[in-house]
Amino acid sequence: MLETEYFNVADVFGEDVFNDSVMQERLPKKVYKKLHEVMDEGRELDLETADVVAHEMKEWAIERGATHYTHWFQPLTGVTAEKHDSFITAPMENGKVLMSFSGKELIKGEPDASSFPSGGLRATFEARGYTAWDCTSPAFVRHDAAGATLCIPTAFCSYTGEALDQKTPLLRSMEAINEQSLRLLKLFGNTTSKKVCPSVGPEQEYFIVDREKYLQRKDLIFTGRTLFGAMPPKGQEMDDHYFGAIRERIAAYMRDVNKELWKLGVSAKTQHNEVAPAQHELAPIYGKCNIAVDNNQLTMETLKKVASRHGLQCLLHEKPFDGVNGSGKHNNWSITTDDGINLLEPGATPHENIQFLLVLTCILRAVDEHADLLRASAADVGNDHRLGANEAPPAILSIYLGDQLQDVINQLVSTGEATRSLEGQRLHTGVKTLPDFMKDATDRNRTSPFAFTGNKFEFRMVGSQDSVAQANIVLNTIVAEAFSDVCDELEKADNFDLAVHDIIKKQATEHQRIVFNGDGYSDEWVEEAERRGLPNIKSMVGAIPAYIKENNVKAFEKFKVFTRAELESRVEIEYEKYSKTINIEAKAMIDIASKQIIPAVIQYTTALATSINSVKSAVAGADVSTQSGILTNISELLTEVHTQLANLKDVVEKASAIDCCQKQAEFYRDEVKTTMDKLRKPVDELEMLVGKEYWPMPSYGDLIFEV
Ligand code: ADP
Ligand code: MG
């Protein structure tokens, strides 16, 4: 029986966070005010204020059981990093220690940068790296088996200030969109909004499997995905898992996850079963861009940590199982002012909302001009199994607007004037006892990679285990660029109304090719997109060069989000990441095939041969053709496994000898990955022929249907 421990959400929410109410309660008024000036207006933080904040933060953390503090940062490894220091100072004369934490320790850390990916920045600059406190994202105390630790969200830079992490460029991009949005709002007569910030709500998909079974799969352990595995008799074709009743074991797990997240101030809100068996989703309530990115990292960590407590394993990989839907992350994005205005709110009659139409067409333009960059922002090794591989979403970037906005855009393009907006209709169910209600003016489209959903855009390409930072850095920057260009024009226009009108029409017309409301999975769309000249970038390796394409570099440099050197370093890191990941996968395959699969198949064939011989000697002339047929079939497949295994070893060796990182990554994609597929094929066929008790690992059926 599962024990249910009841608790009041309001009591636990944020209890481990040094949030605004804690600060207000614990900090002297003057210090609290000063800190807010830093947080809200970007003023510089003086050491005196930092000292007081640090002291109070430490006292609070110690009350919560913390013994250590860490600067918590997001290097380019894809996961978070931390180095723990305890609060103790040198023992005093009397042999006792004091607990201390200074302002300097709060605002600056010095982890050795040389062991983190820097993509060549390290070769030209020093190895020293700094972490700097991001005071706009609250500190928190994390509890785990090792005790409690005060975690301070930080940015991570090299000695000369180059970004070595996700957060630094993210914060820079937020400044860019803040500045340009304020310019735009001012042109429309808004003088009250002081700050503009992107709002982000990332929906997180994941798989849950039994941990005991997970531990019997070396492929899952080493690579996060299965490298072999035949499809079970039942896959996801019945669609009975999506939104289905959540099983008790999973429900207990989710409950625990939610509680942990709520304590950390992460507003976990929605949970449900996803399309694939054993697949689930968790969505928070949206928040400020950098906090949402931090919270998503915490969510991923928590999903994994809590799973092991329940004898479960959380798989965040984009494609843990071939033939079954993969996992992604939907990055919901809008732009909000400090006084609560959402720039993406169309209102009931969008055709009259000139400011909205300008913002909308700026986004069309930004996405059209930088489609390759947005695609690159979602590129990840695991995501290659989804984007462009017959799975949601397609690799071609397009925007879904829905009937209502599409109609407004059509009017603008054809006549230069939008005079009406489609209205939502009454929904009639035909059942008297069910209430009729007004439905939205626009239906949803699940196949679009970039869909307008009411008052936000939903970018659906990001991979499930990737940080959402990169996607938001790109979105913030390219939209800031479009805003900046139109502001340049509008600020010098003689007739503002006329100029806005012209820009809206021009942008809608010039960039309507990026809008597509149809079925994004269809083959016709692939052809149509090609006719429209939209990029269809099928792999991560093919996507990476977008970072250093001239127009993209220009946008990043203009808003000081990335320097060219930083972009070049990121390109190198991405290629390396690709090569290293495929290399690990290939080596894991070689290991599993040689040490587990081939020996198991040999055992089975031996048993089969022995059985044939004993049947023959027991009954003279007995028909053993079935057994012999199976034996022959298996032996042939075994030969094929042997051949492909040799080929794989060969290409892996060749790959490691290539020294240009782009060429190497291309070789891994074109040669190593294809050979891996060739090795997998006979192995999966063998799994269907070899007796279950001989097969050295749990099957897909065991993993996804028996949680
Ligand atoms: P949908 O069903 O349209 O995807 P949900 O209500 O499930 O919408 O929201 C999905 C995610 O989008 C949630 O994380 C939610 O908080 C977030 N979200 C909702 N409104 C906005 C907004 N204006 N800006 C950014 N994110 C938003
Ligand atoms: Mg959604």
Automatic annotation (TrEMBL):
The GS beta-grasp domain covers which part of the protein? 67-161
Q: One short Pfam family name for this protein?
A: GSIII_N
Q: Which InterPro entries match?
A: Gln-synt_C, Gln_synt_N, Gln_synth/guanido_kin_cat_dom, Gln_synth_cat_dom, Gln_synth_gly_rich_site, GS_Type-3, GSIII_N
Looking up SMART domains in the UniProt record yields: Gln-synt_C
An example of a GO molecular function for this protein is: glutamine synthetase activity
Q: Which Gene3D superfamilies match?
A: 1.20.120.1560, Glutamine synthetase/guanido kinase, catalytic domain
Domain GS catalytic residues, every copy: 166-597
One GO-annotated biological process of the protein: glutamine biosynthetic process
Q: Which family does it belong to?
A: Belongs to the glutamine synthetase family.
Q: What is this protein called?
A: Glutamine synthetase
Q: What is the lineage of its organism?
A: Bacteria, Bacillati, Bacillota, Clostridia, Lachnospirales
